[in-house]
Amino acid sequence: MQSSFKLLGLIGYPLEHSFSERYFNQRISQKGYDFVEYRNFPLEEIEDLPELLSLFPEICGLNVTSPYKQQIFKYLTDISNDAQKIGAVNTVIVRREGDKVQLKGFNTDVDGFRAAIEPLLEPHHKSALILGTGGAAQAVAYVLRQLGIDFSFVSRSKRLEHPTYIYNELTRDIVQSNLIVINTTPLGMYPKVHFYPPFPYQYLTDKHLLFDLIYNPSETKFLEFGRLHGAKTSNGLQMLYKQADKAWEIFEQYGCFRPD
Fold it and tell me: What is the CATH number of the domain that holds 176?
């Protein structure tokens, strides 16, 4: 393998649903970067990361997906300000100094989510329910704070560090006073397309905006139930493209598309 060869990739588990490998390799091919390749690296545990980096010293950058956006922090030597505030990372630059590996973490979900949801907002969209409390949920919360939108998390169990509802606490009044509902959980993602969050969909109205970070399938059960109640709906495809574009910029900035 030539010395200038560089690898980019995606870590997470599982990765069958991911679009990243196809998307990035298509862009790499269009740019004529024949010394760069993007691969999926399904890691059953985040503790497998050091071995991956040892086996593939050509790795220059990684995208990070569920369930490792928070777990990866213990391996980072530097973290961007946004990622530090959010508490989640989805893009990593890999640098090597002798035998030492330096990892810098970024969060591009913020850029993607803001670009995707902002055009959908109407004046009455002042408060939101965020379904889930993981790394993607933290990025969503960060953007809502920037936009001046109040929010509460919805989870299967109480979380002391967040204003949180349990699903069975959601009354008509709560749902109808929070006209944005954002699903950050993997429920409904391909291939388990018949799953959906246990939300009281009967309380939705045509004033609601439902946003699902899932993009495969294009309409989850969560979005279908919203549409059937007249709500405005959007999947995560635009967010996906926008965050991937930002990750590309970071890879570019740190020389991953320059032959050594």
Answer: 3.40.50.720
* Residues 179, 78 share a domain: no
Instruction: Look at residue 70 and give its three-state secondary structure.
Output: coil
Q: How far apart are CA 254 and CA 129, in angstroms?
A: 36
Q: 99: burial class by Cβ within 10 Å (0-12, 13-18, 19+)?
A: exposed
Domain range enclosing 91 = 6-108+240-253
- Three-class SS state of 101: strand
pLDDT at 15 over 70: yes
Residue for token pair 């010395």: 3
- 247 lies in the same domain as 234: no
Kindly state the tokens that stand for 252. 């570019």
Known catalytic residues are 69
The strand pairing partners of 96, in sequence order, are 101
User: Which residue from 189, 80, 92, 74 is spatially nearest to 142, judged by alpha carbons?
Assistant: 80
Indicate the pLDDT class of residue 158, thresholds 50, 70 and 90.
confident
- Stated as kind and residue range, the H or E segment containing 15 is none
Q: What are the structure tokens assigned to 240, written together?
A: 């996906």
What percentage of the chain exceeds 70 in pLDDT?
A: 97
| pLDDT class of 240 with cuts at 50, 70, 90 | very high
Same domain, 162 and 220: yes
Structure-token pair, residue 251: 């890879």
Counted domains in the chain: 2
Q: Do residues 234 and 126 share a domain?
A: yes
Instruction: Give tens-digit pLDDT for 125-141.
Output: 999 999 999 888 999 99
Question: Within this chain, do residues 23 and 82 fall inside the same structural domain, yes or no?
Answer: yes
